[in-house]
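Anyone? Bumping this.
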Amino acid sequence: MTDIAVPESHADLLALAIAPAMATIGPGGEPQCSPVWFEWERGVIRVSLTTQRQKYRNLVERPRVALAFVDPDDMYRSMELRGTTTSIEPDIDNALLNRLAKRYLGIDAYTFDADGTERVVVSVTPSHVTTWQ
Amino acid sequence: MTDIAVPESHADLLALAIAPAMATIGPGGEPQCSPVWFEWERGVIRVSLTTQRQKYRNLVERPRVALAFVDPDDMYRSMELRGTTTSIEPDIDNALLNRLAKRYLGIDAYTFDADGTERVVVSVTPSHVTTWQ
């Protein structure tokens, strides 16, 4: 798994606490698209999902993904990463979820899930980058 | 073609000059996802595309679409519209493009396309709404 070449002009978008729209493919072949929290590390995007979400079921069956990152200060500067889900694993002790809660909400633990909610770490390896502006 | 029921709590998002991420399906079945300008009128979303874009070619072959609208002042308030491309027509005299230039840039005419660029009006009829917050 090697880093794809994210252009320097847009690499900063991956360090921002923004919520890119993540597109997946539904059971009937239709696109699904909604914002997600993410972190980026060494060429991999990680997203926390509950196993109740359609997005989770889509990724288990159809691992291909696209994410649209938009500069919150300039909506014309954006980047699409397309790639494949390379692992889906239990989020043990909500480790990823809590890192994301820190990054997005500034809190140490995310406590808003209903009892019994199962969380997974979805890792996406991008293979294709498109940038605008 | 009847209006879908966009919840009143999120209907304002359709009046904002924001750029929702639009997901389409590529030639290999992979999702594509990037921001677009849009207008909403009587239950139809209209988007201006050049015929050079992959997104245009995707929609000609595979008309299903999803769009993610996010409140620019509250990233946790968002809405997904899923639906189908119901027409793709030439944008005569760039009428839609210029309306969008007015809406997004405050200018009367969009003059940034290269000579010979062909524009189409893509009309999407949503059939399914999901909201968050």
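Late reply, but here is one note on the structure posted above: Chain B has one domain: 8-114+121-127.
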